[in-house]
Amino acid sequence: MASAPPGAPTLVWPGQDWATATPEEAGMDARALDDLVAFGAANDMDSMVITRHGRLVREAYYGDFKAEQKHRLNSATKGIVAALVGIAISQGHIQSTAAPVLGFFPNRTVAHRDARKETITVQHLLDMTSGLEWQEPLTGGRVASLLELRGSNDWVQFVLDRPMTQSPGAGFNYNSGNSHLLAAILTQQTGQPLHDYAQKQLFGPLGLQDVLWETDPRASIPAASVCR
Question: What's the distance, CA 188 to chain centroid?
Fold first, then answer.
């Protein structure tokens, strides 16, 4: 966190409730924040929360959304999984982001296994550059692969069995399956349900207690694309 400007309120976060500050107290431009809130309304955003130096500066909720309402995070959940990967590496549960992914699943028979798939690493999953075939466009359209994943009875196996369309690292392709493999790796390497690990290592220290996390139908692994 950047150092507070002269005269800024003393850092008070985390706590049970957010302390507040005016834009001027936080060293921010009130008119620019007004414009940002208006931008959210004009672009069908659900909500907006702006904090600085541990204090709540501005918040806005649009449409039917309320401050106390649980919200489906979708892609932001992938950031949570990535943060947990970093924590797990720092604690020695995962050697490094260069670790080969298939090495974490030695007891599984993987379809379309070739030299390219053998070189997929944890970093490739984090970057969404695994090269696995996956249709989940960010610009609209049918998210075919995600729907097929949710219809399968073993989500981890479904992702591992995808054929390769390019070499790992060759290009970005948005892929919730990559993040689900990370969730599976974390569950295995930490030896505890990922929600429990997240609560102890991340949610708890952040003051987040009431979290819902959808799990897959077979391994009780949190779905890396759905957290509330």
Answer: 18
| Rounded-to-integer distance, Cα 26 and Cα 30, Å | 10
Instruction: With beta carbons less than 8 A apart as the criterion, state whether 187 and 144 touch.
Output: no
Cis peptide before 14, with omega less than 30 degrees from 0?
yes
- The torsion of the CA quartet 91, 197, 125, 94, rounded to 10 degrees, works out to 30
Taking a C-beta distance cutoff of 8 angstroms, is the pair 107, 208 a contact? no
Amino acid present at 110? V
Sole residue written with tokens 């069995």: 161
C-alpha to C-alpha distance for 104 and 17, rounded to whole angstroms: 40
Chunked in runs of 10, what are the mean pLDDT values of the chain (228 residues)?
56 73 94 96 92 92 87 84 97 97 96 97 98 91 90 94 97 95 95 92 86 78 59
pLDDT at 1: 46
Distance from chain centroid for Cα 29: 30
pLDDT, tens only, 131-190: 999 999 988 788 999 999 999 999 999 999 999 999 999 999 999 999 999 999 999 999
